Amino acid sequence: MEISLNKVIRAISIALDLSQMSSVDGTNIIEEVSNINYTKHNFMNHSLRTCYVALEIGRELNLPENTLQMVYISSLLHDIGATNFFNISHYSHDFIYEHSVIGSKITKDFPLLNGLSNIILCHHENFDGSGALKLSGNSIPIESQLIRIADLIELNFNEAKPSLVQKDRIIKWIREYSDKIYSSEIKDAFLRCSKKDAFWFNLENLNSMGFILDSVAPKINQTINLAQLEKIAYIFSNIIDNKNNHTASHSVSIADLAYNLSKSINYDEEKCRKMKIAGLLHDIGKLAIPVKILNKASGLSPDEFKIIKSHVYYSKIILDRIQDIPDISNWACNHHEKLNGTGYPRALRAEDLSEESRIMAICDIFQALTENRPYKNGFSIEKAIRIMDEMCNKNLICPYALGNLKKLIGYNGI
């Protein structure tokens, strides 16, 4: 099975932007060097705009295609270390250093992308050596240097205002920090880009016209196999579960249960691996949920529960972007649907729900009922099964899938 690496990267960038939007929560993060307040920025489409600016400057510098490929990938993923960070109060130096280090560790074993980890580690370094790692000049990878200036341009950009109205202000700001944060060579390349009105119109319209980035992006022809996708899925399951204080290993536990249950009913190995990946990624949409709601220790209000419900919608948005895994996306994103049509987010009915989707729902419910949370102990297996039997009686979940779960865990009805 071949899966487009480019589509996976673009899907991940959507998840990262959604996560940053939902995580800026009362924390005042101001970078002293640039005097930019991260807290006030709308991070939706942040990675896309950063990527676009970095690529335009890179092309102006006549960088080789293989370097532009890494600029493209690393700029889309540059804030992967910030996904769980904004919910904790930090001074700006701590934030900048730690999210770069965390991002570097997360991407160290990313399939096919040697060098990505070091680029992300260095993406907040300043040309004059005043960054957190004290690297300077060309000891900073060129990809990191381009992300640095592009990131700051995007953070200076206000999507609520016409782009040309902001042009002179941003250019003035960029001139001010030349040879401090970035080299004069990179600054000059940006200034050449900035003379074109099309550059600013593209920056303004990226959120609604995704083909703009496609038009400047280098060709990424690499594909990954199912094992490599599983490796990426494990990376993201850790990010997802770490964002929620209440679910330290929820996704991994569901993935293991889905895999073992699939094996027990004689699915072939490829389908079992797909079920595991679906389990690892089923809650990826929780990256879009505000941390105050996700980590609330007490009961949710009706409005808060409505927001929580949206996580499955966002999971589908993210996973469908990959395109090459429609089965995994459906299995992962139908785990809150019910046979009688009362589930969410699409109110599917029994005839719309595959056996695999029904199994994923069973795994999710069983795990949620039996796992411990900081505010409550999990139910015993006996009580969990009684609750799920009652759900079967109400035509909410599949009795066949539940019966196979009982066999797997050795439940004898006593």
From TrEMBL:
PROSITE patterns linked: HD, HD_GYP
Native source species: Clostridium malenominatum
PANTHER family: 3'3'-CGAMP-SPECIFIC PHOSPHODIESTERASE 1, CYCLIC DI-GMP PHOSPHODIESTERASE PA4108-RELATED
Organism lineage: Bacteria, Bacillati, Bacillota, Clostridia, Eubacteriales
InterPro entries referenced in this protein's UniProt entry, alphabetically: HD/PDEase_dom, HD_domain, HD_GYP_dom, HDIG_dom
Pfam families in the record: HD, HD_5
Name of this protein: HD domain-containing protein
Residue ranges of every copy of the HD domain listed in the record: 247-369
Residue stretches making up the HD-GYP domain: 225-414
